[in-house]
Specification:
Blueprint: E1 4-10, H1 14-25, E2 29-30, E3 40-44, H2 86-101, E4 105-106, E5 110-116, E6 122-128, E7 131-142, E8 164-167, E9 181-185, H3 189-198, E10 203-208, E11 214-215, H4 220-235, H5 243-247, E12 249-250, H6 253-260, E13 266-268, E14 272-274, E15 277-279, E16 285-287, E17 290-293, E18 318-319, E19 322-323, E20 326-331, H7 340-363
Parallel strand pairs: 1-3, 1-7, 2-3, 3-4, 7-20, 8-17, 9-10, 9-17, 10-13, 11-12
Antiparallel strand pairs: 5-6, 6-7, 14-15, 15-16, 18-19, 19-20
The structure holds flavin-adenine dinucleotide.
Flavin-adenine dinucleotide binds at residues 10-16, 44-47, 52-53, 57, 66-69, 110-111, 143-145, 147-148, 190, 300, 303, 333, 338-341, 343.
Keywords: Oxidoreductase
Domain FAD/NAD(P)-binding: 6-333
Organism: Isoptericola peretonis
Length: 366
């Protein structure tokens, strides 16, 4: 691993690969052995292989049931069967992409901390297998997604529950719950998809904090409005909201069928957990064997804590992809760019701004 690079990209999901693609287009070369004078980059990724979080999505999330995956920049996705598992198709596509473009992703390499050095560099401290080290960078593009940071809300009595509790991130297949009584918690897309799936083999009970907002369709203007609302939040230093909390849920054909079967009969969120079930606001105990928490994810940014980026609003104040006032740090796949199309654009935007920043360093007063 080289000891320095102009740009370190942390994470090689869609966002990190988009940044790497645009760095290559702007003439950057992989650090370590680059001819003098060339601008350099490294990409560090914690996974064992390509694919980002798609490596871990549940098997039944098929290419026909994802919402629509944008191609990585420059190379189209291969034609695949709609029933193929996204956890197979997308890692294979990402792997081919990395190889074809020679992106030189280092794995498995987890960044533990990023610190400011006295000389103006950022020190990226990494660990991987039995190795560890530091890369000194002029700028970083953070593209670490959310999958490694599942959010579990706290409810009284949670630790007394005798059944199984799991999060979306732990879900593998519906058959694991055959014949059980399952509380499905959450009002997002993952919640309703897993509710529908589990309801075929188990008795389900759906709990959400708010009455879900259903819509029959969703066009590009709705998408643009949702992204603009999340962008507005992060520009004011507030934590990003999930896009679904802004857009509402789409009635897909399978959800219409689930609705007709009575599966989408939503209950207000339970107030406490007992060893054998959950207690509803009217005090009734609903016996359940499993609680499936589809309560979302948070941005995986713990390694940036030494930079003290969070402000009093609880979030990081953003200026596009750049952390406001910190031209060396870009966050992509974050907030308004937490989608495949958003990640593509954010990778491009971050690289454009970093190039301008590096130019300003080399052309500034001596
Ligand atoms: P990821 O794919 O999570 O990649 C982040 C990478 O960073 C990972 O490889 C991870 O190992 C690595 N990493 C994390 N921490 C570190 C660290 N400290 N050091 C080094 N590496 C690290 N979007 C759509 O547009 N269409 C969809 O249909 C769609 N479906 C989705 C379904 C689910 C269940 C979920 C959760 C999300 C979905 N999204 C969808 C969102 C979309 O997957 C992401 O926003 C998009 O792929 C961008 O991902 P990313 O690159 O930011 O993150």
């Amino acid at each position: 691993m080289p000891g320095e690079a102009d740009v370190v990209v942390i994470g090689a999901g869609q966002a990190g690969l988009s940044a790497a693609y645009h760095l290559r287009r702007r003439g950057f070369v992989p650090a370590g052995g680059a001819p003098t004078g060339e601008r350099t980059y490294v990409v560090l990724d914690a996974e064992e292989g390509p694919g980002g979080a798609w490596r871990h999505r549940w098997r039944s999330l098929r290419m026909s049931t994802v919402n629509g995956i944008h191609d990585l920049p420059g190379i189209e996705q291969p034609d695949v069967e709609p029933e193929a598992a996204s956890a197979d198709v997308l890692p294979a596509y990402f792997g081919d992409y990395e190889r074809e473009l020679g992106l030189a992703v280092a794995r498995p390499v987890r960044v533990r901390r990023v610190e400011r050095a006295d000389d103006g560099d950022l020190l990226v401290r990494w660990e991987g297998g039995d190795r560890s080290g530091t890369v000194a960078a002029r700028a970083i593009v953070n593209a670490t997604g959310t999958w490694s940071k599942p959010f579990w809300p706290a409810y009284p009595g949670q630790e007394t529950f005798r059944g199984r509790q799991l999060h979306t991130a732990d879900y593998v297949r519906a058959e694991d719950f055959a014949g059980r009584r399952v509380a499905v918690v959450g009002g997002g897309i993952s919640a309703v998809q897993l509710l529908e799936e589990v309801s075929h083999v188990a008795q389900t009970f759906w709990f959400t904090r708010r009455e879900p907002v259903w819509r029959d369709s969703f066009d590009s203007q709705d998408g643009a409005d949702a992204v603009a609302m999340v962008a507005d939040r992060v520009s004011r230093g507030l934590p990003p909201q999930s896009i679904v909390s802004v857009t509402g849920l789409i009635r897909t054909p399978s959800l219409r069928t689930a609705e007709a079967r009575g599966v989408l009969d939503r209950r207000p969120m339970f107030t406490r957990i007992e060893p054998d079930g959950v207690v509803t606001p009217d005090g009734a105990l609903v016996p359940v064997d499993v609680i499936l928490w589809n309560t979302g994810f948070r941005a995986a940014l713990d390694h940036l804590r030494p930079l003290h980026l969070r402000g009093s609003g609880g979030g990081i104040r953003m200026d596009g992809t750049q952390v406001e006032g910190e031209p060396r740090v870009h966050l992509i796949g974050y907030g308004p760019s937490a989608s495949t199309v958003g990640a593509n654009r954010a990778g491009r935007d971050a690289v454009n701004r970093i190039v301008r920043y590096l130019d300003s360093l080399s052309w500034g007063p001596a």
